[in-house]
Amino acid sequence: MPADLEHPHPAVNATRARQGRWGKHVFWVLVISTVLAAAALFGAWGLRSGDLASVEHTKGATTQGEAQQYSTEQAPVKQTPAG
Predict the structure, then answer these.
(1) pLDDT at position 40, please?
(2) Contacts for 57 with CB less than 8 Å, ≥ 6 apart
(3) Would you place residue 68 in the very low, low, confident or very high pLDDT band (cuts 50, 70, 90)?
(4) Fewer CB within a 10 Å sphere, N or C end of the chain?
(5) Distance between CA 59 and CA 67 in Å, rounded?
(6) For residues 31 and 38, what is the distance between their CA atoms, to the nearest angstrom?
(7) Would the CA dihedral through 42, 44, 49, 55 be positive or negative?
(8) Could you state, in order of their start, the residue ranges of all structural domains in the chain?
(9) 20: which residues sit within 8 A by CB, 6+ positions away?
(10) How far apart are CA 47 and CA 20, in angstroms?
(11) CA–CA distance from 51 to each of 34, 68, 73 (Å)?
(12) What is the pTM (predicted TM-score) of this model?
C-alpha cells in the first residue's frame, strides 16, 4: 500500500487545491526578476547612449531664414457651399 494512502488527508475541493499561496518565495522571485529586468534595460540603454547622443534632432532655435524655407502659401478652400 502506498504511503499516501496510509495517512488520511483533509478533503479539499478543486478550486481550493489550485489556488497558490503568497509566500516569501513568491515575493523574492518577483523582486529579483523586476530588479534584473530593470538592470537589463538600463544596461542596454547605457551601451547605446553614445549612439543616441550623437543624433542631432535640432540645433536649437532656428533662424528666420530656415523657418521660411519650410513655409508654403495657403491655397483657397476647394469646397463649394451646399445648397
Answers:
(1) 97
(2) none
(3) low
(4) C
(5) 13
(6) 11
(7) negative
(8) 1-40
(9) 26
(10) 39
(11) 26, 31, 38
(12) 0.43
Q: Map grid coordinates 495657403 to a residue.
A: 74
Question: CB neighbours of 26 closer than 8 A, spacing ≥ 6?
Answer: 20
When pLDDT is averaged across residues 16-24 and rounded to a whole number, the result is: 77
Give the whole-angstrom CA distance, residue 36 versus residue 42.
10
Q: Which residue reads 540645433 in cell numbers?
A: 59
Q: What is the 3-state secondary structure (H, E, C) of 10-76?
A: CCCCHHHHHCCCCCHHHHHHHHHHHHHHHHHHHHHHHHHHHHHHCCCCCCCCCCHHHHHHCCCCCCC
Question: Alpha carbon of 69 to those of 19, 20, 47, 63, 65: distances in Å?
Answer: 66, 65, 37, 10, 6
Which H or E run includes 3?
helix 3-6
